[in-house]
Design goal:
elongated; 9 helices; two-stranded antiparallel ribbon; about 45% helix; Alpha-Beta Plaits; mainly alpha; about 5% strand
Length: about 300
């Protein structure tokens, strides 16, 4: 009787430890600082920072941890974190552009060892069946490579985002005079009346020239029809149109990265919730089995 009670106590203690671990490993708090830090991270869930995901690293940073442990984020993330937390900017690790994992169908044996390694559930497939990677979901963390026994997974460069809208190129005379020297913007404002889209090219250029994508988006960069009339009236001979095209391309890439990051965060959180529920259910089942074993002794 005493041994059964001791066993039940040990199992209950183990269950409590598992639940405590799950609560720490998969937090559900809504700390605004942690959430703000997590929003600035690239959401690759690659664990290169030494933590098992972007959310745990955000918690460590909020608690005073270093802000320069994210290679996929690079200097841009370090600068953003320093501004948010009002800390000095430290040297950032070399930036690593997130690639895409691809599985070679000729070598894949369907062992399914790569499935649990993926932090965002970007690999699909069943035992003894061919696996594949969801490209829109893959964050390029590379955690699926070590478990593969046949080395059939490779990391490839992510395709460059191309703005689907056509670029209008103005016809130029064949025998034109040499181009005049480009001068700094004198803020004359002549480009604004010439714009058929009622934009303010002068302000728009100030944003695109400094890579201020948010400011360019707010100023209406997406509404530019690329007519080039602003170039024709600019007394400083600034190629405003080229700056707008570059800015729009960068904005499209930024929006795609943000979309991928949000999707990766959501999938990681759903996976974490499943793992926490699984640990809780397993502890409950163990406790129920022990109670059924102990019940005959009391009857």
């Amino acid at each position: 009787m005493l041994s059964v009670i001791l066993t039940l106590g040990v199992v209950s203690a183990v269950a409590a430890v598992l639940l405590a671990w799950a609560d720490r490993r998969f937090p559900r708090d809504t700390d605004p600082l942690v959430r703000a830090i997590d929003q600035l991270l690239p959401q690759t869930q690659c664990a290169q920072c030494g933590y098992p995901g972007c959310r745990p690293y955000a918690e460590a940073v909020a608690a005073g941890g270093p802000i320069d442990r994210c290679p996929p984020g690079g200097a841009e993330t370090v600068t953003a974190l320093a501004a948010l937390l009002r800390r000095p900017v430290t040297e950032a690790p070399p930036r690593i552009d997130a690639p895409i994992a691809r599985i070679d169908p000729e070598r894949c044996i369907g062992c399914a060892l790569c499935l649990p390694a993926c932090p965002v559930d970007a690999i699909i497939g069943a035992q003894t069946h061919l696996h594949t990677v969801l490209e829109d979901t893959c964050t390029g963390c590379g955690l699926c490579l070590p478990p593969c026994p046949v080395d059939c997974i490779d990391l490839e460069a992510r395709p460059v985002v191309i703005d689907p809208r056509p670029v209008r190129i103005l016809a130029r005379p064949r025998n034109r005079e040499p181009a005049a020297p480009i001068l700094p913007c004198i803020r004359c404002g002549l480009c604004a009346p010439a714009c058929p889209a009622d934009l303010r090219p002068q302000l728009l250029f100030s944003h695109t020239d400094t890579d201020d994508l948010n400011g360019a988006a707010e100023e209406g960069l997406a509404d530019c029809i690329e007519c080039g009339l602003c170039n024709q009236v600019c007394p400083s001979n600034i190629d405003l149109l080229a700056s707008f095209i570059r800015g729009r391309q960068a904005l499209a890439e930024s929006e795609q990265q943000q979309t991928l990051a949000e999707a990766a965060r959501a999938r990681f959180e759903r996976r974490a919730e499943r793992e926490a529920n699984r640990a809780q259910n397993e502890a409950a089942r163990r406790k129920a089995r022990l109670e059924r074993q102990v019940r005959p002794w009391h009857s």
